[in-house]
Design brief:
With 429 residues, the protein is an alpha+beta fold. It has four domains: 78 residues; 92 residues, 2-Layer Sandwich (Beta-Lactamase); 77 residues, Helix Hairpins (Orthogonal Bundle); 162 residues, Heat Shock Protein 90. Helices cover 50% and strands 21% of the residues. It contains ten helices and 13 strands. It has a six-stranded mixed β-sheet. A five-stranded antiparallel β-sheet has the order 2-1-5-4-3, sandwiched between helices. It has a two-stranded antiparallel sheet with strand order 6-8. Strand 4 and strand 5 form a beta hairpin.
Amino acid sequence: MTTLPSPLSASDDITALAAVMGGNGVAVESEILERAFSSFSEAAHSLERSYGLLRAEVARLRKELEASNSDLGRSLEENLRMRRDLDHILEKLPCGVLVVRGDSISHANPEARRLLGLCAGVGPECAAQTLDSLRPEIRDLLLKVRDREQEDEQEQEIAGEAQGCRWLALRPAPLGEGAGSVFIVRDVSERKGLQQAQARLERDQALAEITALLAHEVRNPLASLELFAGLLAESALAAECRSWVERIQSGLRSLSVTVNNVLQFHSSPPGNKVAVELGDLLTWARDFFAPLSRQHRVQILLRNSLQGVSMMGDRHRLQQVLSNLVLNAISFMPGGGWIRIAGKASADGGSALMEIADTGPGIAANDLGQIFVPGFSTRSGPGLGLAVCRQIVEQHGGSIGVSSRPGAGAKFSLSLPLLANEAPGESAS
């Protein structure tokens, strides 16, 4: 910074002028005025130079400020562009991104909102939601993942939704102490479905191996035992011996039905179908289980309006359907009761309608939707009987359903396609 020279002040000039007034006053006054004007001129030039330097410094600083503002503007635009790009990426990510600070959800992209059911819209209103607004199982999973020290992915099945059960996977990514957490949310239902399908396939392969073992090692000896038991029942035996033979027959037939269920469930669909007389089929079902029903004090009632009515099918498989339904009903009535087997043609003559009803305890409402699922059983056993029934009936182009009230028995209804131009007859016993 330039230092201005100090000119003579006006008071100094006046003092000097007064000191010499007694002498040559005019000469002194002229000299003093000259010196004053000279000092003033030098001060003015110095001030002008300083002002010029100040203006140059201001101009330089203004240029630097303009350059800095321009850089800041470009940086701000770049930041805004990057934020728009990041927001666009978050919007389009196939997985959910959830940011949680404390107990509040500060950000959630559309996929996270969809998977977690945060809100229906796509606005910032989701940021006001808390963890308590989530479904309990989702909230518990999120808290469990957040509280774990490991950053491994956790999976949870979310049941009871409109679209059925789903599997969600959450992976945490802590932002730092006090900064919150980021969670990556994925729907892994498809992968879980493939894993379950693989498990079913492995189970089916294991059962197929058991099926081959049953076919060779159990079924053939069992058929021989049934034959000899039948011959004993037809021979002249005492009443007590006949009772023992009937018990043997009952056990063998129950075992035969179980073995056939496994074989049928893992066998191929029927190939060449032949005409099967349905009236004879219903009569066979009553007679086949007569020893077992007497042993359990169960009366089998037959109302047969299908005499002379036939359909194209596999007789052995259709016998398996009736065997499963009748045996299932008997097993649920250890104290006795009755089973009604009924059959008739539909009003248009295009299908046969069969019913197997019992006076057992009935089926719980929660179980009605699962009883045809392979492996489902309310008792010990493989749980294949009703699944085999549905499989065989559908292979024959028919349908099977059930109705029940707890304590009022159960009724299974079958519908099977008929051959054309059948004239049904009726018999009851």
